[in-house]
């Protein structure tokens, strides 16, 4: 037994999960320059049993970020390029008749993986997008009356562009609400872009990126996160934040949104080496967990503004 392995076995589950999260973040940063906060949010969603939506203009690294996260975990990775002619069965799989056996055989779609990258998800029509609804919420797929479990752990990381809206479809609210986190990367600053150009001018670092976590380790870390203590005052604070959005918007945060906020906060606590959630954890995750679930009444106030007002106005008791 190596010294490192012995040390890890003697550490607490929280320490092991925190170490895994840090290792994944540092591994992704071998490829992605800058965007440290965004990478942290993706890792908290991964540990919190959530899904991630990356939205921004083309060329800022959305797909590369998703690939880097997937490559950091030694599991099955599948990519779906969403296009206007993509069918639901192209995602979930289809029963095909085998002439030799005289029976139908199920050919699984790319959703049967541990990490699924849905690239430019808003390029496909709502009918195809909805093929992910059951998978994202229940971890299973139903085809022709038969339900099949997806491999665990299971995470969807989807990207969508914010330009050429006339050539894309809006994601249904039922699907948006299933994403734990929605992130925008933005352009890098001058120093970050210069460093990025230096890193990719030769062989791209994604080509040599090695996994730093096994599926078993990731699953154990997820189970550890799920056991992080969330006391009643913290739960009540999350409820008040959600209620504020419902009172001040046409569509406020759903109960699923409140659950996702607490799960993300549990992962944030583990990332910080704690076995209990504090209000700071909710405040760190709320700006990326709540806004995409909100529809405001006024064009002068964005959903992000409303969440900021909730964080400022709702007391921590």
Distance between the termini: 48 Å
Largest sheet: 5 strands, parallel
Mean pLDDT, all residues: 88
Structural class: alpha/beta
- Count of individual helical segments: 14
CATH superfamily of the largest domain: P-loop containing nucleotide triphosphate hydrolases
CA-based shape:
globular
- What is the number of beta strands? 11
Fraction of residues in helix: 40-55%
> Percent of residues in beta strands?
15-25%
CATH topology of the largest domain: Rossmann fold
Strand order of the largest sheet: 3-6-9-1-10
Question: How is this structure best summarized?
Answer:
By secondary structure, the protein is α/β, with parallel strands linked by helices. Helices cover 45% and strands 15% of the residues. The termini are far apart.
Record the SSE blueprint.
Blueprint: H1 3-10, H2 13-28, H3 36-47, E1 52-56, H4 62-71, E2 73-74, E3 77-81, H5 88-92, E4 93-98, E5 103-108, E6 115-119, H6 126-129, H7 133-138, E7 140-143, E8 146-149, E9 155-161, H8 173-176, E10 181-183, H9 190-200, E11 213-214, H10 215-226, H11 232-247, H12 255-271, H13 279-289, H14 303-313
Parallel strand pairs: 1-9, 1-10, 2-11, 3-6, 6-9
Antiparallel strand pairs: 4-5, 7-8
What keywords describe this structure?
45% helix, 317 residues, five-stranded parallel beta sheet, Helicase, Ruva Protein, domain 3, globular, Rossmann fold, alpha/beta, two-stranded parallel sheet
């Amino acid at each position: 037994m190596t010294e490192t392995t012995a040390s890890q076995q003697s550490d607490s589950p929280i320490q092991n999960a925190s170490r895994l999260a840090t290792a994944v973040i540092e591994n992704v940063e071998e490829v992605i320059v800058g965007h440290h906060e965004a990478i942290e949010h993706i890792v908290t969603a991964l540990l919190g049993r959530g899904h991630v939506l990356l939205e921004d203009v083309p060329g800022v690294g959305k797909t590369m970020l998703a690939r880097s996260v997937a490559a950091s975990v030694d599991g099955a990775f599948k990519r779906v390029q969403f296009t206007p002619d993509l069918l639901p069965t192209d995602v979930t799989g289809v029963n095909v008749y085998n002439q030799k056996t005289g029976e139908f055989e199920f050919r699984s779609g790319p959703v049967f993986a541990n990490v699924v990258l849905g690239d430019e998800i808003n390029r496909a029509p709502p009918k195809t997008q909805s093929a992910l609804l059951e998978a994202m919420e229940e971890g299973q797929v139903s085809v022709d009356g038969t339900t099949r479990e997806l491999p665990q752990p299971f995470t969807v990381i989807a990207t969508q562009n914010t330009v050429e809206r006339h050539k894309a479809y809006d994601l249904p609210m039922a699907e948006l609400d299933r994403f734990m986190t929605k992130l925008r990367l933005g352009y890098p600053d001058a120093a970050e872009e210069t460093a990025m150009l230096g890193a990719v001018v030769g062989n791209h670092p994604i080509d040599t990126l090695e996994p730093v976590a096994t599926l078993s380790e990731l699953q154990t870390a997820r189970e550890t996160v799920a056991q992080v203590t969330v006391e009643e005052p913290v739960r009540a604070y999350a409820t008040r934040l959600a209620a504020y959005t419902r009172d001040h918007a046409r569509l406020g945060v759903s109960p699923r949104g409140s659950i996702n906020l607490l799960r993300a906060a549990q992962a944030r606590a583990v990332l910080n080496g704690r076995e209990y959630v504090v209000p700071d954890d909710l405040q760190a995750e709320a700006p990326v967990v709540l806004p995409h679930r909100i529809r405001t009444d006024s064009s002068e106030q964005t959903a992000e503004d409303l969440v900021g007002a909730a964080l400022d106005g709702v007391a921590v008791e």
